[in-house]
Each structure stands twice: as C-alpha cells, then as structure tokens.
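Researcher: Let's try something more involved. This one mixes different molecule types, so please make sure each is placed in the same coordinate frame as the others.
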Amino acid sequence: MYLLLAAHPDGAALQELTAAGEPNMTSPQPRLVSRGELAAVVRQLEQRRPRWIWHRTQDWYPDLLRAGVELERCYDLTLCGAILAHSAFTAHTAYAKGAEKLTQDDDLQQVPRGLQPPPPPADQGALFEAPALHMEPGQSMEELRAGYAAQQQALAHASADANQRQRLQLLLAAESAGAMIAAEMQHTGVPWQEDLHERILADYLGPRPPTGHRPAKLEALNTELRQLLSSPSLNPDSPQELMRALHRNGIEVKTTRQWELKESSHPAIEPLLAYKKLSRLHAANGWAWLDAWVKNGRFQPEYVVGGVVSGRWASRGGGALQIPRQIRGAVHADPGHKLIVADASQLEPRVLVALAQDSKMAEAARDKDLYAGIAAQGFGGDRAKAKVALLGAIYGATTGESGRLMPQLARTYPRAVGFVEQAARDGEAGKTVTSRLGRSSPPPSQRWLQSQQSTTAEEQRRAESIARSRGRFTRNFVVQGSAADWAACWLAELRRRLRAMRSDGAPAGELVFFLHDEVMVHCPDAAVDACVSAIEEAANVAKELLFGRIPVEFPVSVAVVESYDKAK
DNA sequence: CTTCCCAGCGCG
DNA sequence: AAAGCGCGCTGGGAAG
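Model: All components are placed in one shared frame. Result:
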C-alpha cells in the first residue's frame, strides 16, 4: 500500500496510490486531514503498513515523532529524485533528461529537486481548488503524484541489467530509510552528561570563565608565549600576528599548522602547540557549545541525508560528525543502559576488494586485519607501509611515501589498483563514475569544461592539473560512495531488526548516532546481546545486498561501554 | 555595521 | 610522516 501525503492549506491531503503511482481506483478520492488530527490519522493508517510517500521526510516526520508516531517505511521524493536524476543507470530515461534540462534552464549548480511534472488535469474535484494546488510550487498532491509516477517509470526503465535495476531500487529504499533514521536519531539525541563534560573542560582549561574571556590555562599559556616570543600584545588566535611573531624570533615557517611547527625546536613551540590544542577545545566544544547544543542530557544534531555527493551524510549545527576524542567521555549511557559502539573495520579497502573482485586482495581481506594481510603478501610484513600504500591508491596520492609505494601495490594487486585507476581516468576525461548501488558522481563543473578550451602552454598545464584533481575525486568517489551504499544498507537493516525486537515486546536499543562507518546504539542492559547480534548480522546482510555471496569479510568491531571514550 | 572567505583543525 | 578523498565550525580579517 502506498500513501501519498501532501501539504494543503487546511493541513494535509492523503491519497492512496498504486505501486506505479496511479490513483488507486478503489479509493481514488484524496482525503483531507487537518493539522490537528494528522498524527492520529497517520497512526491509524500505519497499521496497514503503507509506504508513505512525501516530498521531504524532514517536512513531516519530525512533527509526527514529537506526537509519538513512528513509521515503518517511506519514499522521500526529493532524495530519490536527486539520485535518479544523475544515476548512470537511468541516464537514458526521460526523467534524467528532464532533470538535466531543468538544471541548464535554471543554471543551477545544485542537484535538481526532481522533475517538474505536467500541470494537473482540470477535473481534480472540489477538494482541490486551483489556488490550493499552487501554494507551494511542485508540492501539490497532483504534482507529487506525477513526480512519484515519473520516478517509478525511470526506475522501471533503468539499465537493461536487472541486477542494476534492483540495486538502484535498493539504494532508493535505503536512502529513504536513512532519512527516517536521521529524523529519529535527531529526535532521540545522543545521551550526553553535562556534568561530565564540564569536568573534562575544567581539567583541561580551568574553571569556567565569563563569556568572551580566556579560561585560566589558556591565559597562562598566552602569557608564557608573549614572553618567549617577546611579543607583549600577541593574540595567538590570529595566524597573521602569530606568523610575524614567529618570524621575528627566527622561526621560519610558511604556515602555522601544527605539523610544520613541530619541525622547530624553539622553546615557544611546545606551549604554542598546547595553546592551539586547548584553544580549539574551548572554541569548538567548550562551555558555549554545551549551552547551545545539549539540553536535558541529550545532544540533538540535525543530520543532512544526501548532504555529500558520495552519499555520506552531512550534519548541521553542533559539529555532530566531529565530536573530538577529548570530550567523548561526556557521551554516557543512562543508568541501567549501555552504549554499543560498532564500526566497520577498514571499510573502504574492503569495499575496493569487492568492487574490483581482486581475489588476491580478497585473501588478505579474509583476516580481521586487512592491512596485516596486505603487508604479508607484498610489503615484507610492514603493516604501516601496506596501509599507507592502500589508502594512497584510494585517495590518489602521487608524491611522498604513499606515491612511491604505488608501483609495488599495482604489481601485487593489478585488479584493485586498475579499478581505481580506471575511475581516475574516467574523471580526467570528464565522464561520471557510479557507486555499486547506482549513485553517480556529478558531471564536470563549468570550470572543468572551460579549462578544456585552453590554448596556451600555461593554460594547458592548468587544465591538466584541474583534470587530475577531478580524477582524484572520481577515483575516491567509487570507493567512498560504495562504502556509503554499504553503510546505508547496514543502518536500514539494523533499524529493521531493532524495530522487530521492540514489536516483539523484547527490550530493545535505539540508534542514537551514525558516523560514516560507525553506529551507536543506546540500550537497556538486558538488550545488549541481542543488539550486538543485530549489528553483526546487519553488516553481513548489507554485504550480500551489495555484492552477493563473495569471499570477502566485512567485520565490525563492537564495544559495549558506559561511555564513548571507552570504545576503541 | 554585515557578509564572505581563509586558515586551521576536528572527524571519517 | 604530513601527501592524496569527503565534510563542519571557529575566529580573524578583508570587502562591501
């Protein structure tokens, strides 16, 4: 059952659709629901286990969650439309061509929101008067229905390869599930103990200073720096001032980055590095951050699904995806609960093995420690070397140790290295590349296209540099994007299992955090074992959904802890 | 005064 | 050891 939920001046309108997006003939009339009764109506209809179709999950789901209504599944027209508009699997369809035309017409750099559907037929019935249809462009019931139908059409006509069609369908389902999970995790929040956070801050920085003032330990370091650098009014937070002061003291650095400062043995360097470290903590995750982002023992950031072209999530507010190790002790389970922190070990290299079907590297990937396996096969047991070489292949390193190790890696693993090299060459040539489940990289930028017109030798060099830069991006995209595909499936499958535990009446955990290849579940003590199993089984399900039954392991490392700093 | 970009650093 | 991918946030500082 498919239920389309659309905005309406009086609240919301609901319409039952067929799988293809046609009005369901047994109940063709849209149903109008007021704002006030929406949650109750949705809760009632959820018993029929529909797939909810809506413009954006963010428009509807947070309010429903606040009203205590959780849903099983949805179809996010905006997120799915963005995937279908760019996917190589649907590039030949009318949907993708329409989206391409839209971007050209509007001169948008952004991903199109979706294909503009044809105007609705005139006889829509009394419920939808003309003004109501156009209150928000592209979001009336009929426009959304037509948009959904067009997307289903594109999906049905995607790639002649049935496997690719199936993968794309899986990606749309996983992306929509991700949107729901993001809203649910924001609603739940990460368990965060303010008092523990304050204790950490006091240990590092001293007592809380008045707003706008430096804490005691920073002030002391500043005083020391001003003396050591003979600069009585120095503000070390200003890179320009700092650079001048360093030069006056014979410290010839080109930047004020910490690794470059470490080269110098001047006595001011040690307190300077200490200052930078603490200053960062104070500015980014200090008392002001705590006041702004943690309420009632929960940190509730907004996740932006589809915020990264590769399919990774971004976030907004509070720097949710950059919680520094220093303060992870403040992330603490409630009494009688545990945090389960699980991350996929060496996910991107393993994804590369599976993508390239490199059987030699697959042997190395059979072990828990892939880098050790690689080291044993081709790097004389030197794990650090093997790791640098492999990551360099995925990122496109050309210089340094990583660049020098590339030929050695290519000799041992021609298939794996060849796979990323091909992606790089495609990118350099202006082609797009595609993740395992069908998310494609953006087309070349205007800048890239213009650079191809170059004539002079100087312009040529510039153009080659831009092309190589794009090659590094597409090289990384196939791996990072496919890893994001895997993570989305892992997350969706884990959510499904946690929901099943709960509906069985068993104690169950809640997803509270997700970071690229890592999940955190907050659960009652009694549910720990079941949750750990769910996490591990979901990882295997994700692997098989992407790649079938292949001899490559995707192990997850699981830590059951009271607080986040105890994981890893 | 506001708005924007950069340098630097946090995370994967 | 410090280069190669993807992000967000901060304070400083220049531009409007």
